[in-house]
Structure formats: C-alpha cells, structure tokens
Amino acid sequence: MPAPSNNVTVLGLGRMGSDLARSFDAAGHKVTAWNRSAGPRDAATGFCTPVEAVADAVAASDLIVTCLADYDSTMEALAGVSPEQWAGRTMVQLASGGPEDAHAMKAWADERGIAYIDGAIATFPDRMGAADTCIFMSGDRAAHDRHEATLAAMGGRNLFASDDVAAAASLDLAWLSLLYGVTLGMLSAAAFCEAGKVSPKHFFNTMPSFMPEIAHAAKEYDDMIARDSYEGDQAMISVHLAAMEHIGGAAASAGMDTRFTDMLLGMFKEAVDRGLGELEIAAAIKVLRGKEG
Q1: Rounded CA gap, 206 and 145, in Å?
Q2: Burial bucket for residue 95 (CB in 10 Å: 0-12, 13-18, 19+)
Q3: Which of 5, 178, 216, 269 is 20 to 30 A from 41 in CA distance terms?
Q4: Type and span of the H or E element at 137
Q5: Percentages helix, strand, coil for the chain, rounded to the nearest 5?
Q6: Does pLDDT of 1 surpass 60?
Q7: What 8-state DSSP symbol labels residue 280?
Q8: What is d(CA 243, CA 231) in angstroms, rounded to the nearest whole number?
Q9: 256 three-class SS
Q10: Rounded mean pLDDT of 49-71?
C-alpha cells in the first residue's frame, strides 16, 4: 500500500465542514472541497480548492472526509461517483447518526471497496483543530493508522475507539448526552440566578472552578461502573435526593419551569425505591439502563 498523499478532500462546507477544511489547510495539507450550493464554495476559496462536481472532489485525494447533514445526505451526494473511482480511497464519515447508520454506511462502503472509518465530532465548529478537541473514530484501523497524521489536524485528542464501526456513533451519543445535560443544567443555573436577582455572569465566571470537580467525579464513576460496585464515602443517593428536593421546591417557589427538577427527582426517587439510596450517585446508572439495569 503506497504512503498516503498530502491531499485531503472535504465534502460539505457548512459551518463545521468549513472549519474542518480550514484545519486541514492550516496543517499544511492540500484541500479540495465540494458543497452542493455555490455560496459556501465561493466563500471557501481562501482555504481550499472548491470543485462543482463531487466526483472531481473524490478523484482529487485518497482521503475523503465527509461532513454533511446525515448519512442519507452523504449517500445521496455520493450517488454519482462510480465504484471504480473509489479505488484505493479511505472515507471518514462525520455526519450525525447512530450505530445502525454506521453499519449501513459501512455496508455501502464495502460494496465499493472503500476503506471506511466512521467518526463523530465532539466539539463546536470554532473548536475544530484545537489541541484538546476530540474526534471519535472507529472502523478500518489500518486505514486510520495510514492517515493518522493527516487526521490529527482535526483535533489534538482524537480517539480511534474500536474496529467495531459503530463505536464512534455510540460515543457520539454519550457526548451529546453530556452536552445537552450540562447545557440544561447551566441554563437552569442561570434561571435560578435571575430569580434571585443575581447576575448569571457571577455563576458563569466561576465555571472553571467546577471543572476539576467534574473531572474527578468522572474518574470515580468510571471506576465504579467498570467494577459494578457503588459503595463509597462521598455522598449517598439519598443525600443527593434531599438536595434535588430543595432545588425542586426553590424552582417552584420562584415560578420557574420545573420539568428539569421533576426529571431529576423522578429518576433518583426511583433509584431509592430500587434500594440504591445508600450507594454513591453513580449507582443511578442502573435506572438509566432500564428495567434490567
């Protein structure tokens, strides 16, 4: 197998795709890009060579990185590329989707002899290429290793998770769960500040001090879940539940929407009802796993 070239093609020049192309360009790669509409192509001339035909974009590089809306959009965009044009090429798919989408895309790629890597971007567009940005990848390990130096332009903490092509999609679901859970928590925090006539700025400015606590908790949860043992000496679920009842009551008194606090109370009351009240909070994963948890 010949060494990979310095060329890379990016398909999709939306906000994420454009910053992706910029990251490859900044790392010294020759970037060819395609987008369905002309506007983003015209705006991208400073950091890539835009082309009008997707087949020309695929022909330009042996590494094809797709960043379209979803898997169906990707297959639709690539429908006009003949199977022989894929010879010797690797495709990294970065659209949003789930494990079933990843398996379907791999089957599509296998039919065309494409070395396929499924991926998920765990950041926002303006963080693309940052030293601590992570892109999850899984699938063809040999293809990943062959192009690893080029793919490093996407993020400094990229993770190739598994030969199982669906692993990146599962990690994406994990990342999005964290993202939206934290987002809802931060917005709830801002609403509590406003209700108390305190500027949310004071809360947001102290956020960096919370990060070590969250990182520490993540390590504790990882260890407990791996051992499936949740005994500890920090705070039992029953203690956390008392705090949740406090914030739930405060939200109601302030006239805030209580759906967030109601959800917390419902989840952790169930944990107590299932006999988990004397365990550390990580034991609530048994509730999230479902009836067989």
Answers
A1: 40
A2: buried
A3: 5
A4: strand 135-139
A5: 55, 15, 30
A6: no
A7: B
A8: 20
A9: coil
A10: 97
Q: Per-residue pLDDT tens for 252-273?
A: 999 999 999 999 999 999 999 9
Give percent of the chain above pLDDT 90: 96
Topology classification of domain 7-163: Rossmann fold (3.40.50)
Strand residue runs (E) in 109-227: 115-121, 135-139, 159-162
List of residues 6+ apart from 124 with CB closer than 8 A: none
- Residue 32, helix vs strand vs coil: strand
Could you tell me the fold of the domain covering 171-288?
N-(1-d-carboxylethyl)-l-norvaline Dehydrogenase; domain 2 (1.10.1040)
10 in helix, strand or coil? strand
Total-model pTM: 0.92
Q: Are 150 and 122 in contact (CB under 8 A)?
A: no
* pLDDT given for residue 291 in this prediction: 72
Q: Which amino acid is it at 49?
A: T
Flag whether pLDDT at 292 surpasses 70: no
In the chain, domain spans: 7-163, 171-288
One fold for 7-163 and 171-288: no
